[in-house]
From TrEMBL:
Its EC number is 2.7.1.237. Belongs to the GTP-dependent DPCK family. InterPro entries: GTP-dep_dephospho-CoA_kin. Catalyzes the GTP-dependent phosphorylation of the 3'-hydroxyl group of dephosphocoenzyme A to form coenzyme A (CoA). This is GTP-dependent dephospho-CoA kinase. Pfam families: DUF359.
Amino acid sequence: MQLPDDLRDQLKNPLGNLIKDNDPNRENIIKKNSAESIIITVGDRTTENMLQLELKPQVQIIDGLEKRVQCLVPADDTVNTKLSCRNPPGEITEESIQVIQKAFSCEPPVRITVDGEEDLLVIPVCIYAPENSVVMYGQPNEGLVIVHITPEIQAKVQKILDAMN
C-alpha cells in the first residue's frame, strides 16, 4: 500500500501528545502513561531513548536508520522475540502488517527489524495494538509523540490505512 501525496500533510500532525525535544525525560513520559500500559516504540531513536530511560518497550520497531542515515541499532539484551519484515519507504506492506499482528501474540519484549523504512508502521501498530497500549514515535525535528490506543485512534488510523489502498 502506497502513501498517496494528499495524506503526507495529514501525517505531519502528531497522532497523540507531543513532548518537545528538550523535554523527553523519564518523569514526563511516565506522567503520560499508566503503569499497566504496554509500551510500543516505532523508530531507532525513540527505542534507544526509552531503553536509556529504563522504560522497556514490549514491542520495538526499528530499521537501523535515523532520518534516512545509517545508525547504530540500540542493543537490548532483554529481547525475547526477534522478528523481521520488508517495508519499502512510503509504503505499508502486507508482510509488515502480519508481522506486527504476530508481535502482539509473542513473548515480550519483541523487536521487529525492518528492511526498508519503519515510519509508516505507526499506522498498523495503532490499529492492532491492545487498548491499554501506548505507542511512541519521533516527530521529525519536533519531539516524541505518545499515542494512547483507544477505539477512536484505531478508527482514525484505519481510515488512513484504507485511503492507502
